[in-house]
Amino acid sequence: MDKAQFEALLPLIVAALMQKITEQKKISHDKAFLQLYSSRLYNALDNEKTKVWYYSAEKLFQLFEEEMSAGKLELPEY
User: Fold this and answer.
1) Cβ atoms of 73 and 66 closer than 8 Å
2) What pTM was estimated for this model as a whole?
3) How many degrees, rounded to 5, is the angle at CA 1 between CA 46 and CA 18?
4) Least packed by Cβ within 10 Å: which of 4, 17, 33, 52?
5) Taking each helix axis from N to C terminus, what angle separates 29-37 and 57-70, rounded to the nearest 10 degrees?
6) Helix, strand, coil % (nearest 5) of the chain?
7) How confident is the model at residue 13 (pLDDT cuts 50, 70, 90)?
8) What local confidence, expressed as pLDDT, does residue 78 receive?
9) Which range among 32-41, 42-51, 69-78 shows the weakest confidence by mean pLDDT?
10) How do the domains of the chain map onto residue ranges?
11) What is the CA radius of gyration of the chain?
12) How much is the average pLDDT of 33-57?
């Protein structure tokens, strides 16, 4: 995927994940934003080479929750 395609796709993925976070955790959009953008998951998601953007919003939310509770991010190997 080229850079322009990735940059167009990333906001859609982040929006879906943000919606999942706010709904599931019942927190404000601002709080979800701060948590997501300061996470290791977001750093991985923002890097096209990690291919984390392939995951569904549900899988990304699961990884986000695991990172928040365990304090570390473990990406599954596919």
Assistant:
1) yes
2) 0.91
3) 35
4) 4
5) 80
6) 75, 0, 25
7) very high
8) 59
9) 69-78
10) 3-68
11) 12
12) 96
